[in-house]
Amino acid sequence: MPDLFTIGYQQTTQPAVIDALREAGVTHLLDVRAVPQSRKPGFSKSVFGASLEAAGIRYTHLRGLGTPKAGRDAVRHGHPEIMHRIFRAHMAEPAAQADLARAGAFATAAPVCLLCFERDPAQCHRTLVAEFLGRTPRHLFA
C-alpha cells in the first residue's frame, strides 16, 4: 500500500511545501480544510491547486473532511482535545463519510498527503483523518 503523509503549512511557504511533497514522492495532495482559503500567500485553493498541478502533483479538495468551525475555534483557543471530540462527531455526517471513502480510494492508489494549516500534527485534525482511514501517516515538515 502506498505511503500516507500529512503536512501543515503554518510557518512555511508554498515552494517549501511543494519541495517537501516532491522529496517524499507524493503524487496527490488531499486538502482537508473545511475552508480552502488562506491569508498566507499561495495557499488558497485555486492558486495552490494550480501550483501543485504545475509541479506534477494532483490536487483534490475534500471539504467533508474539514473541521467544523467550532473545532477550529477550539484549536485557536488552545483546546485540541475539544476539536478532536467535535471532529469525531462530525465524521458521522454523510458528507464526511463520502469524502472519507474518496480519500481511502485515493490513498490506496498512490502516495497521498493530507494538508491542513497547523504545523504540529497533534494540534490538527489531519492525524484523525488518517486514523479514520485506518492508516499511520508519516508527517512531513516544510
Question: Which tags fit this structure?
Answer:
Protein-Tyrosine Phosphatase, Chain A; five-stranded parallel beta sheet; 6 helices; alpha/beta
Produce the secondary structure layout.
Blueprint: E1 4-8, H1 14-24, E2 28-31, H2 45-54, E3 58-61, H3 69-76, H4 80-90, H5 94-109, E4 112-116, H6 126-132, E5 138-140
Parallel strand pairs: 1-4, 1-5, 2-3, 2-4
Helix pairs in contact: 3-4
Summarize the structure.
The chain has 142 residues and is an alpha/beta fold. The protein has helices spanning 14-24, 45-54, 69-76, 80-90, 94-109, 126-132; strands spanning 4-8, 28-31, 58-61, 112-116, 138-140.
* Class from helix and strand fractions: alpha/beta
Widest beta sheet: strand line-up: 3-2-4-1-5
Mean pLDDT: 96
- Kindly identify the CATH topology: Protein-Tyrosine Phosphatase, Chain A
Per CATH, the class reads: Alpha Beta
What is the N-to-C order of secondary-structure elements (H for helix, E for strand)?
Answer: EHEHEHHHEHE
- Domain unit count: 1
Explained architecture:
This protein has helices at residues 14-24, 45-54, 69-76, 80-90, 94-109, 126-132, and strands spanning 4-8, 28-31, 58-61, 112-116, 138-140. Helix 3 packs antiparallel against helix 4 (80-90). By secondary structure, the chain is of the alpha/beta class. The chain has a single domain, classed as Protein-Tyrosine Phosphatase, Chain A. A 5-stranded parallel sheet has the order 3-2-4-1-5, sandwiched between helices. The protein is 44% helix and 15% strand. The chain has 6 helices and 5 strands. Strand 2, helix 2 (45-54) and strand 3 form a beta-alpha-beta unit.
